């Protein structure tokens, strides 16, 4: 591999400056197959797949004025899963290591990445390529002709699309009020509990369409209602605000496997007159407005323009990190929970007999819900830093009461 280095993108700078033991800024994408994983074959598939993604074969380093990613000849290896989901990938004890790990347990393959390296969509591209390569090694006669979705050239995968498509259109960001922040004791030892809820895509779409809204809006409104029901009476004057990451590849001609997203917020101050249907309609109207091309591109430029301000580059890195950390803390005060919809995951139909499904989840210091689907299986990958599960029980319980089929799995935690 040729020696090279990359600037970190603007979103990556936020993750680097704000990762912690409580939230190491790691996401996980997983694929479940119909048979237990063969470790040796997965390791070989990983070696072959890594060659297609040279921008992932990097280590993170600190400079005087910025962090940077440098190519490394370290080879990734697939290992049996021994760590909790979304365990740290980067930190003082993990210096000069790759910023992603691949593990397996039973029939599942996990790819976990430090969010400074890529976003969920970039991680899914890598996972699907890995799964396809693995199955081709196991079934060469049946699957030799199968290729995953097209993997872009290395230069396109490594593109900093924030910088590439910056159009200097952004103005000052709109100041949002402080949101309701969920209360309750956090899990001890900086733990996070992870839940995996399976629902039927057709059932959910039928309900969302009956209310005249998108699936994302329907789920977002239900999450809002669950949070509001658990909100102390004295704090109900604050809005419940859901942050939703937006895949900017849907707005720009980018094939980057690095971070390329920004986030929008949908908030609501409850007055006691809301129904599930009226709240879903209000959520949907705000979401559609915020997802307009003009709003999305202006927001992207507003975020990126900080990079182009005179006098920023020579500021020492430790000052930049403290500033980014303070800015991120202030922005977090305007968000109650996060809902990230990765959408329908598409794979070559020839692989269907070997696959059972996909899921995604992310580390968090509050509550984070990842939505993904494969065929008729929709999965909510829910992570929570709280001991209490009242919001989760209401969120999923209300859907079950509405006649939706819900199957729930959860990781074990040590409650001290």
UniProtKB/TrEMBL annotation:
Residue ranges of the TM segments: none
Protein name per UniProt: Alcohol acetyltransferase
Superkingdom in the source lineage: Bacteria
């Amino acid at each position: 591999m040729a020696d090279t280095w990359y600037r970190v993108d603007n979103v990556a700078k936020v993750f680097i400056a704000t990762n912690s033991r409580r939230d190491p800024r790691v996401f996980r994408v997983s694929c479940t197959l119909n048979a237990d994983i063969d470790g040796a074959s997965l390791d070989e598939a990983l070696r072959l797949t890594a060659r297609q993604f040279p921008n992932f074969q990097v280590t993170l380093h600190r400079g005087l004025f910025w962090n940077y990613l440098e190519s490394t000849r370290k080879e990734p290896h697939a290992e049996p899963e021994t760590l909790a989901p979304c365990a740290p990938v980067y930190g003082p004890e993990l210096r000069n290591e790759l910023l992603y790990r691949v593990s397996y347990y039973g029939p599942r393959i996990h790819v976990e990445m430090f969010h400074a390296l890529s976003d969920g969509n970039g991680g899914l591209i890598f996972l699907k390529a890995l799964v396809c390569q693995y199955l081709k090694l196991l079934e060469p006669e049946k699957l030799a002709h199968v290729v995953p979705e097209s993997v872009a050239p290395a230069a396109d995968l490594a593109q900093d699309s924030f910088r590439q498509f910056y159009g200097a259109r952004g103005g000052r960001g709109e100041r949002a009020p402080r949101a309701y922040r969920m209360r309750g004791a956090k899990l001890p030892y900086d733990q996070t509990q992870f839940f995996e809820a399976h629902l039927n895509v057709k059932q959910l779409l039928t309900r969302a369409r009956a209310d005249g809204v998108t699936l994302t809006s329907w789920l977002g409104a239900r999450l809002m209602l669950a949070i509001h029901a658990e909100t102390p009476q004295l704090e109900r004057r604050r809005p419940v605000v859901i942050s939703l990451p937006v895949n900017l590849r849907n707005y720009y001609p980018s094939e980057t496997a690095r971070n390329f997203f920004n986030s929008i917020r949908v908030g609501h101050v409850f007055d006691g007159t809301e129904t599930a249907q009226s709240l879903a309609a209000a959520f949907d109207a705000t979401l559609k407005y915020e997802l307009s091309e003009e709003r999305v591109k202006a927001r992207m430029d507003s975020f990126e323009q900080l990079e182009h301000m005179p006098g920023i580059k020579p500021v020492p890195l430790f000052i930049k990190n403290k500033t980014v950390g303070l800015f991120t803390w202030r922005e977090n005060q305007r968000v109650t929970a996060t809902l990230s919809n990765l959408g329908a995951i598409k794979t070559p139909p020839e692989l269907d007999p070997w696959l059972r499904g996909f899921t995604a989840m992310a580390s968090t210091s509050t509550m984070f819900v990842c939505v993904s689907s494969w065929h008729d299986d929709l999965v909510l990958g829910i992570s929570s830093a709280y001991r209490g599960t009242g919001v989760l029980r209401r969120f999923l319980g209300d859907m079950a009461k509405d006649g939706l089929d819900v199957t729930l799995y959860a990781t074990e935690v040590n409650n001290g």
